[in-house]
Each structure stands twice: as C-alpha cells, then as structure tokens.
User: Which sequence fits this backbone?
C-alpha cells in the first residue's frame, strides 16, 4: 500500500474547507460523539440530518434513488441499530483486529439489519399515490447504499461504489463485487497486512479517521485513476 496516495488525496480535499467529501467527516465525527456520549432526542434529529446530507453529498440521492422520496426521519431506526452496544467491537477495527470471526459475525448481523430496515422503507413507497409512475426494484437494496451508511457512521467497511470496486482489482483485493462475508474478510485482511502504513497515514492526516476510511480513500483513488486513463 502506497501511503502517499491517501495523504495526497486528503490534502487535495483540505484545500477546500467546504469540499463535499468533508460531509463524511462531519457525519462520522457526529456519530463517534453519539457513541461516546449517548443519544438525546435532539441528537437523534441532528444525526438523521447529518446522515442524510452525507449520503446526498456522496451521490445517493439521485433521481432514481428510493430514499429521495422520503425525508430525513427515515433513518431513526437505523441510527438506533447502529448505536447498539451489540456492535461495539466494529467501532474499533484496529483494536479488535485479531477477533476476526466475531467481527465478521457482527458485521453480517449489522449489515442484514440495516438492509431489512431499508427494505421496509422502500416497500412503503408502493402506497404513495403520487409515485405511481416511479419504477423501483423492490427486491434488492444497493450494497453501495448500505456500505456508505456504515462508513459514515461506524466506519467499519469502505463504501463499495463503482469507483472503489474498480480500484480493488489493482491491488491485493481481487473480488470487485460485494459479498457480505467475503468482502469484509478481505478488507480486514488488507488492514492487518498494512496496519503500520495505515497508522502512519492516520497520524499524518487525522487520527480520528478509522482504518476503513483510509482503505476507502486508497482504493477509490486507484479506481479513479484507472477510469481517467
């Protein structure tokens, strides 16, 4: 792993204090604070807004997206799930890196719960009289959406969007398609292999950035470079 890639990528973002990619940082820091200090009713509203705006900044509110048909309050149950003490280990991948089996089981469980909640939200759109002309695939939920939610809150998995997936094939991780179990194991293995380089990046850019965010930036840059060439 070339740590210079991530450092340069981060420095380019920081040249604009209001860069849209900073939305991730605002969202993640908000959820980290909630995890440490608890969730009040007022905090819940702000957390929903932070999550919604971050997802919008990261391209998840395009016209074909089902969440575009809802307001920010749809994230209430998802936030409760994410902040459950059951998933505490996932909030510190580095500290718990040797508990791979337990981490993997928790990740699959958390992913599945969020997916089910999003299914319920998506299916509720069927009853909207003003959306009769909209055509949604009610049988699937995008892994891109779920992983972006997890990256912006728990920080336990990179965001598997198209560009990130393109970057995977250019380094140690071969599987480009997302699979709940295999993908998490692969990025955890990548983290463990390059842990020291990742820590040096964190020390250089921002110690609050979780390892999976560093990995996300690394492979996203590789994918973007590949697409530009």
Assistant:
């Amino acid at each position: 792993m070339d740590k210079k890639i991530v450092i340069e990528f981060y420095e380019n973002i920081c040249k604009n204090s209001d860069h849209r990619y900073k939305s991730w940082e605002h969202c993640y820091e908000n959820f980290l604070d909630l995890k440490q200090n608890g969730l009040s009713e007022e905090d819940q509203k702000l957390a929903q807004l932070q999550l919604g705006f971050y997802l919008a900044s990261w391209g998840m509110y395009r016209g074909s997206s089902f969440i575009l048909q809802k307001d920010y309050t749809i994230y209430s149950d998802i936030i409760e799930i994410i902040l459950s003490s059951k998933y505490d280990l996932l909030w510190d991948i580095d500290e718990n890196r040797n508990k791979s089996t337990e981490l993997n089981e928790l990740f699959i469980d958390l992913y599945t719960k969020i997916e089910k909640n999003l299914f319920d939200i998506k299916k509720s759109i069927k009853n909207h009289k003003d959306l009769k002309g909209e055509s949604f695939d009610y049988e699937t939920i995008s892994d891109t959406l779920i992983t972006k939610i997890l990256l912006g809150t728990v920080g336990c998995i990179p965001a598997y969007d198209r560009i990130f997936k393109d970057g995977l094939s250019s380094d140690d991780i071969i599987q480009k398609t997302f699979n709940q179990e295999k993908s998490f194991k692969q990025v955890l293995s990548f983290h463990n292999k390059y842990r020291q380089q990742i820590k040096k990046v964190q020390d250089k850019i921002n110690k609050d950035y979780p390892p999976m965010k560093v990995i996300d930036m690394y492979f996203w840059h590789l994918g973007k470079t590949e697409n530009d060439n």
